[in-house]
Amino acid sequence: MKDGLAAPTVDHGLLLETRQLLSEITVVNGLDASDFDEGLIRSMRSGGLHANLVTGLRNGVRPIMSLDSPHLRFVREQSRELHLATSVEEITRARNDGRIAIVFGWQVADGIGENEEMLEGFHRLGLRSCGLAYNVGNYVGSGCVDPAQGPLSRFGERVVEKLQELRIVVDIGGHCSEATSLDALRVARGPVVCSHTNPRALRDNPRNMTDALMLAIARTGGVVGITTFNFFLAAAGQASIEDYLKHIDYAVRLLGDEHVGLGLDQIIGRQITGPVDPRKFPPTAYPPMYEDWIYVDGLADFSGVPQITAGLIARGYSQEAITRIMGGNWLRVWREVWGT
Amino acid sequence: MTRDITRRAFVGSAAAVGGLAATGCVSPATTVADPRAAGSHPGQPHDLVADASAPMSSPGRALAAFRAEVRARRAAGCDIVLSPVAAGETLEGTLRNLVALQSHLSALPGDALLVRSVEDLTRVRPRIGVIGSLHGLQMIGENIALIRHLRAAGVSVMQLTGYWKNWNGDGCLEPGDNPLTGLGRMVIQEMTRAGVVLDLAQAGRRTSLEALELTTGPVIVSRANAARVQEHPQNLTDAQIDAVRARSGVIGVSAYPPLLSASSRPTVEDLLRHLHYIVERAGIEHVALGLDFDDRPRRRFAEDRLPDPPYAYPVGIDSIADLPAFRERLSASGFSADDIAKVLGGNLLRVLEPALAAVAPA
């Protein structure tokens, strides 16, 4: 038995119940930062993932930043394993086909420079979720760890309006400043999400989210995804799955079980070492060395996802609640925004 | 009512204007009989007349039109122009504009030259000297290493922002009035290291005050008037004027109409009012010209407090041809010949010189 696993004995009843439930529900990860390659497919399969919003690199390139994005070829070549989805209907169909649905998303709006009209083209290429600022200021707004923290710029307002017009999910991501996030909520009509964050009430980290902002997101009908990035859960030592479940618990108690989801934010396959850029990843929010960017024990990749389900069952969550938290909430908000 | 300019129209108009308006005649402050004789009397830098903003060079501008502008500047006695090679372009567009500028300059070796060093300043007359500038650093994004490369290519003056928010901070038309970003702080230090003059024209108030607090290098506000005389986001508050003075910087008073008065047709009196205000507030050492005769559209959003072209440039100074008459007005207004030489170019060049003298470290 590996060190660090929770239970020294296997609860067969729980195992069966977990397997049964997992065979019925649709498991959706609301934000992935992993390298988008064959290794990711294996990991998603091992965890029984049905849909994944990818934002990570392939051949060093972020998804659909250009017409020759290697992501486009990859989804085409992997059409037996994957389906590029632009509707919830497609996600459901892919699940029935035994394929994993992939949704293209961006964590930041830098791909459009100062021109919101470019969203038309990226929408055509499959973009269905879009962040705003990433830790530092850009044309759109300000980031959560930058000295300058302010609202959306004029251009940022136009970007949010354009995203809504195109029915692309507006994702404040967790990386925007609070002022920019609140401003996006002000400008947007319809649900806004935060794809990947953790409750600041449980772990005081500038990258984590206040109760007030999470509540504001929930009021739009949106969803808050909870990450497994260790430093967002624990200042020292490695967090356990129990710690992760505490974060889910907290969010559900605050927002209700219709507004919480998985936003695992893993970096499967990435092998960067050395110091981080302290401007973008200051030590108040991130470990200063990439080697120390660890994840919750057992949740560094998707193989541990069934343990989240098992943990929720063990905590007494209803099947309906688990269905929502493990994916139903993402599907609901995506259907509402995309219209399909 | 007015609506946002489409992105295409904005960029297209920005690219449509090219070249420089310039014809040369010599500042009366010199003592040489025929200063147009090349090499007969190298202009002392502080006798040169400089305008801190003249229209862009672009690939689209025909050589004939460029030459006509150069000659108009010389005829008016304007020796030096700060000419933006980009105002919202991509990096590729900026480099293309630089290539076009250099191509025009090599076709007119007797009329104009690129000024990149103090030594270049001494060789300007009887030609005009072009100092490359940028109206914002959008084209470099986060890649601040490009600052020294652009400096090597002849861009010696760079605005931190345009009218709107960029990676460095807020422009003055943003409602947020936010401070410098972390990157903006790094950019300011890099500019000083690279021998680039920091230009805070169009910057938001808080962004510019922080920049003035932080910088240890040469700084100008190439085009701005006094907010107390005419309120406008691009005009400077007393606090900003004081901060420029504290940094030994200069403010280029502008003929761009919305900065002058609320009238539909301002006059040269309005420009003089702003000039006098800043001189009284900061002293004669801190005023320059940033006339900004440039008819391209500037508005981007419906909310922008900017008019659409054609602009009603002030009666009495509505083009560079009025520069000699403006010099007379300054004299009639009570300024000494020395003071006039400072305002018309000496102050600006005093601030530019350390940057022009700097050699960017490898």
What does this molecule look like?
The complex is a heterodimer of chains A (340) and B (362). Chain A contains eleven helices and nine strands. In chain A, helix 6 (154-165) links the parallel strand 5 and strand 6. In chain A, strands 1, 2, 3, 4, 5 and 6 form a six-stranded parallel β-sheet that branches. In chain A, strands 7-8-9 form a three-stranded parallel β-sheet. Chain A has 340 residues and is an alpha/beta fold. Chain A is 36% helix and 10% strand. Chain B is built from eleven helices and nine strands. Chain B has helices at residues 7-16, 63-75, 91-107, 118-122, 146-152, 182-194, 205-214, 238-246, 268-282, 323-332, 337-357; strands spanning 50-51, 80-86, 112-114, 128-134, 155-159, 197-199, 219-221, 250-253, 287-289. In chain B, strands 1, 2, 3, 4, 5, 6, 7, 8 and 9 form a nine-stranded parallel β-sheet that branches. In chain B, helix 7 runs parallel beside helix 8 (238-246). Chain B starts with 6 loop residues before the first helix and ends in a 5-residue tail after the last helix. In chain B, 57% of the residues are buried. At the A-B interface, helix 6 of A face helix 6 of B.
SSE series of chain B: HEHEHEHEHEHEHEHEHEHH
Morphology of chain A: globular
Low-confidence stretches of chain B: 7-43
Number of helices of chain A: 11
Question: How much β-strand is present in the residues of chain A?
Answer: 5-15%
Poorly predicted regions of chain A: none
Number of strand segments of chain A: 9
Count of DSSP helices of chain B? 11
The level of helicity of chain A is 25-40%
Mean pLDDT of chain A: 95
Oligomer: heterodimer
| Main β-sheet description of chain A | 6 strands, parallel
- In one word, what is the shape of chain B? globular
Mean pLDDT of chain B: 86
The class by helix and strand makeup of chain A works out as alpha/beta
Tell me the radius of gyration of chain A.
19 Å
Structural class call of chain B reads alpha/beta
Main sheet: strands, sense, barrel of chain B? 9 strands, parallel
Percent of residues in helices of chain B comes to 25-40%
SSE order of chain A: HEHEHEHEHEHEHEHEHEHH
Greatest interface and its residue counts?
A-B, 24 and 29 residues
